[in-house]
Fold:
Amino acid sequence: MLSTILILLVVIIAAVLIYAATRSNDFVTARTARTARIKAAPEAIFPLINNFKHWPEWSPYEKLDPLMKRTLSGADAGKGAAYAWEGNAKAGKGRMEIVNSVPSSLVSLKLDFEKPFRASNSVDFTLKPSGDTTAVTWAMRGSRPFIAKLMGLFMSFDTLIGKDFEAGLANLKKAAER
Structure:
């Protein structure tokens, strides 16, 4: 009886591991991407995203560790501007750099995490005017190592990241509509 239970347990674990291995190596946060309508022109919103000096006004990640060390380097804003951080276990450690900046319509970032795990992702903020509002979309894509595929079977990336994107866009809306 014990050997049957043990064999069944091994088969279940193997099936889960095999299923995780068959999942895509890349993720696109199409489901996780969030969009907010902000009652402001793209020209008023764009500088808040394109210049890391403004991120403390709206980024939800800025509040994870009040003692977080921040280092700005490269260009003041736009392509080449970089932001590195190191904080507590929640904030982790990493660096992001603006790799593409199209005035009032797009800011693309290269986002590299060192802690609590290593990952490299691409982030896009797109701004699309519509009447007296601007639709701002925050999306992320990247590769998914095996451990992330396995974790994805038990937890939703949308739940983990989506609420942060929503909070950040709500903060961005408040900052831009003042």
